[in-house]
Amino acid sequence: MPRPVHFEIPADDPQRAIDFYSKVLGWKFQKWEGPVEYWLISTGDSQPGIDGGLMRRQHPNQPCVNTIGVGDLDATVAAAVANGGSIAVPRMPIPGVGWLAYCKDTEGHIFGLMQPDPNAK
Question: Phi/psi class of residue 26: alpha, beta or left (left: φ > 0; alpha: ψ in -120 to 50)?
């Protein structure tokens, strides 16, 4: 079955976005040598693939969101805010799964952060 294997982040200021994601999530960026301005993003190789979900739309402008697994949700949210991002939805439990928060990056994109914790209530 086909699975998502790539994502793209449009940015008004590519270097600002690169700085943000490098500092907040430790991602690595490499400029592509092709005919357009493009950077390849390495998010690590410890976990294969990604899964997704479907939910009822809660408001008309609700975006698609990529959620990133993190080891320390509070520290990652703090890093996002310290590097020019903001909190879109504060930390909340997903019972039996973990802790989830949504942030907004320097380009206005919302992304989720999930810290696994089967005891979350």
Answer: left
